[in-house]
Amino acid sequence: MSIAWGSLLVVCVVSLAVGVAVVALVAFALVGLSARAAQPVGGPGDGARPPVSPAAGTTIAAICLLAVAAIVGYGLYLIVA
User: Most buried in the list 35, 47, 48, 66, measured by CB within 10 Å?
Assistant: First the structure.
């Protein structure tokens, strides 16, 4: 029995990159959804406009979560196929 070290390295690098990408996309989705939250009165951002509109934040979150679903779905497809 021999180990294909090159292939093992490729699998490790790809899985690390995909893991980081999924976490980053979910984080961006949460930031996008935070645009919908009401700003507290008297807080540090009192009177300041949010960086993005609620509609744009929701759109960003939806795109990020769809990308995560596509990545996870493709991974499951590779496992099952």
Answer: 35
Angle at 19 between CA 3 and CA 7, to 5 degrees: 20
The candidate with the shortest Cα–Cα distance to 65, out of 77, 57, 54, is 57
Asked whether residue 4 carries a pLDDT value surpassing 90, the answer given is: yes
Express each pLDDT in 24-78 by its tens digit.
Answer: 999 999 999 988 877 766 666 666 677 788 899 999 999 999 999 999 999 999 9
Query: What length is written for the chain?
Result: 81
* C-alpha pair distances (Å), 18 with each of 3, 5, 11, 63, 81: 23, 20, 10, 17, 19
Q: Which residue has the higher pLDDT, 80 or 52?
A: 80
